[in-house]
Write a structure and sequence with these properties.
Layout (H helix, E strand, L loop, with lengths): L5 H18 L4 E7 L2 E8 L6 E5 L6 H7 L8 E5 L19 H12 L5 E6 L1 H13 L3 E7 L9 H18 L2 H11 L5 H13 L12 H4 L6 E6 L7 H11 L3 E7 L8 H12 L1
Parallel strand pairs: 3-4, 3-5, 5-6, 6-7, 7-8
Antiparallel strand pairs: 1-2, 2-4
Helix pairs in contact: 1-2, 1-7, 3-4, 5-6, 6-7
Length: about 280
């Protein structure tokens, strides 16, 4: 099971609902039955606007990424998806990230809403999900915007071990708040008050997946014709920005733009989120 206890699950849901209420937006909550489990989605924006799937990263939830991209609903019908087996309201089943399961999962959501082509915005693990969708069936996606995406490169394993994984494991074992603050400082460009509450709750109450992350093969990448914009963060310890853009330039034939966010760690700064907003909105 993903949640360690029913009380832990309720604690996560309480934080989730608090963040959603704090956004002060009009929205619908939808539940989609897929072959991978029930998927919870927050829908916002005029129903006549073109569809956009907003996909959060590991340890995240739909309200969290909606807060980061509040303006997208001015141009798009936004479907903020709670990723399976994450601290949110979707099912606890975890698709195989080495296969194309995530692509099939997204296809089933698209079919449920009777959509034709969607724009995908994926942050971190949401980038992997976006790329898996295009690998699985690229005609599902009109255009993709990937922010510090998983699946293109991996960072220095020793830096990640000492700056992220050892402090994280120590926090899980001891609950020492200094350990989780060290992890947050390594990942976030700026202090995030919600993350200071949500991330400790996530690692206290959830069985997170620490499996090695796969990397997209060049042969598979070159089959993708969908326009892709990649925002890479220069100071990202997990997926270093310059290394990411160099590989993206080498393996893709359909990159629309490659953007280096020079002052950002893995989670971009507010100023860089504004840059991303502007690019997506055109």
């Amino acid at each position: 099971m993903f949640f360690k206890s029913q009380q832990g699950k309720l604690d996560i849901f309480k934080l989730y609902d608090e963040k959603l209420k704090e956004l002060n937006i009009q929205f619908l909550e939808k539940k989609v039955n897929t072959s991978f489990g029930e998927t919870h989605i927050i829908v916002t924006g005029d129903e006549d606007l073109p569809p956009l799937f907003l996909v959060h990263g590991t340890g995240g939830c739909a309200p969290q990424i909606l807060e980061s991209f509040p303006k997208l609903s001015s141009k798009y019908r936004v479907f903020a998806i709670d990723v399976l087996a994450q601290p949110n309201k979707s099912a606890e089943n975890r698709p195989d990230m080495k296969s194309l399961d995530y692509g099939q999962w997204i296809e089933e959501i698209i079919e449920f809403f009777k959509l034709k082509q969607v724009t995908m915005v994926g942050f971190s693990f949401g980038g992997l999900i976006s790329l898996k969708t295009m690998e699985y069936k690229q005609t599902l996606v009109k255009e993709a915007f990937l922010i510090a995406p998983v699946y293109l490169i991996n960072g220095n394993p020793f830096k990640n071990l000492f700056q992220i994984f050892i402090p994280l494991k120590s926090f899980i074992k001891t609950g020492n708040p200094d350990k989780i603050k060290k992890v947050l400082n390594a990942l976030f460009s700026e202090q995030d008050d919600f993350a200071l509450k949500f991330m400790p709750a996530t690692f206290q109450h959830c069985n997170m997946d620490f499996s090695p992350l796969p990397v997209l093969k060049k042969k598979a990448a070159q089959t993708i014709k969908t326009p892709i914009t990649i925002f890479a963060c220069e100071n990202d310890i997990m997926f270093p920005g310059r290394k990411m853009l160099k590989r993206a330039e080498n393996i893709f034939n359909s990159t629309k733009d490659l953007v280096l966010l020079k002052k950002s760690k893995h989670v971009p700064s507010k100023a860089d989120l504004e840059r991303i907003h502007s690019k997506i909105l055109g």
